[in-house]
Every structure is written in structure tokens, then in C-alpha cells.
Amino acid sequence: MKPKYMPVDPGYFEIFEREMEKDDARVIYFAFAGEPKLEESRGKITGVEDQGKEGHFLRFENNDQVRLDRIVVINGIPGPAYDEYDSYALAPLTCQAGYDDCFME
């Protein structure tokens, strides 16, 4: 099941527009899977498409499309989902490490 689309800060649209001017872009994003999983799309970005309730998507020349709110990094620049990615990366450093309660004596 796909998570509901979360609106993206308008500042990211400026970043996406700037990256569209380049001949090649590398986008790392969260795939729609049961567990957090990263995937990559690479190529020329041709535009941003509004698909209504489904959300906004980056379109590539190779027909890949990536939902904007799932982008972790675009050409090395943190994207809208970077904070979510960072929280997964830091989870093992918390006392919970994936558990509901901390066990302290």
C-alpha cells in the first residue's frame, strides 16, 4: 500500500527545476514496499507532473517517474524525504532500537 502523498515544500520545486536543466540526474528515493527500501532513477528529467490525488512526480526521459515526497536525494542535494531517511539511519542509536519501550534497570 502506498502512503498518502505529503505536500512538498515549494522550495523543492526550485531545486527540481534547476536539476531539470542538467543532462543527467541521479535520484535516490523510497520505494513503495513493506520495509523501507531505497531505489535509484538516473537520466534526464523532463518535467514535474501533477497526478492529482496521487501527488507530484518527476518524469525522466526513460519513462521512470518518482513521487516527489519520496525523494531522499537528488544529485547529492537532500530531498523532501531526507529527514525520514535520517530517522531510519539513527534509529539504532536510540535506546529503543526498534522496540516499543526502553528497558532500564
Q: Mind explaining what this structure looks like?
A:
It is a single chain. The protein is an alpha+beta fold. The chain has a single domain, classed as Roll (SH3 type barrels), CATH 2.30.30. It is 19% helix and 30% strand. It contains two helices and seven strands. The strands form two sheets. Strands 2-1-6-7 form a four-stranded antiparallel beta sheet. It has a three-stranded antiparallel beta sheet with strand order 3-4-5, with helices on one face. The mean pLDDT is 84.
Strand order of the largest sheet: 2-1-6-7
Give the % helix: 10-25%
- The CATH level-2 architecture is identified as Roll
* Low-confidence parts: none
Sheet with the most strands, sense and barrel status: 4 strands, antiparallel
Key words describing this protein structure:
2 helices, alpha+beta, SH3 type barrels, 105 residues, 4-stranded antiparallel β-sheet, 3-stranded antiparallel β-sheet
